[in-house]
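Let us practice reading a record.
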Amino acid sequence: MKKKVVALLPMKANSTRVKGKNFRDFCGKPLFRWILDSLLAVEAIDKVIINTDARDILAENGLVDTDRIMIRDRKQEICGDEVSMNSVLADDIANIEADIYLMTHTTNPLLSASTIKQALEKYEEALLTGRADSLFTVNKIQTRFYTESCEAINHDPDNLIPTQDLEPWYEENSNLYLFNRDSFAKTNARIGSAPTMMVSPALECSDIDTPDDWDRAVVMTHYMLDKGLIEV
């Protein structure tokens, strides 16, 4: 029987470092629209839940409730920059039934529908085999790291080997999380007690938190548009 998949796309009105970024024009459409369009292109996703304090702003941008989009007004007690994202997710999970929850951000405009599908397939296989209870995307990094005091961390400066031969390190990239009600209950977090990772494509891994992040993502988006890799 098909599992019910619900995507959680939290969205607040204000942003500390890039003012109003969720609704600013980003290469031809509001930033939030990029990831929303990718989610809606995945047929396995039954509904997208937008937990927000910006229903009016969304309406101004033409977004209202539909058969696949539910806009939830964020409770006052979980509004604000200091509130943990896990508190917002907990509120959605308590009110929206699903077999699988997929969480992503408006700040991941280049995450593609095909990568989302791949992650869902990998997660369902992990659940079926009991190999993992949750999944999150990462960047694979093979480079030389140092502490602030210039001490080598993951390599021997006296015996330099090619970076491609270094042990890979994996960076949580905040692009995509998959979990279920049971895994969330164990940790009160989107990463459960027995997670697995998926390396996401490097070109899709923009995570816009700062003005520099925004500028880099714009450059990458124009490159991908010029190459025909994505469409507005």
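A brief commentary: DSSP finds six helices and nine strands in the chain.
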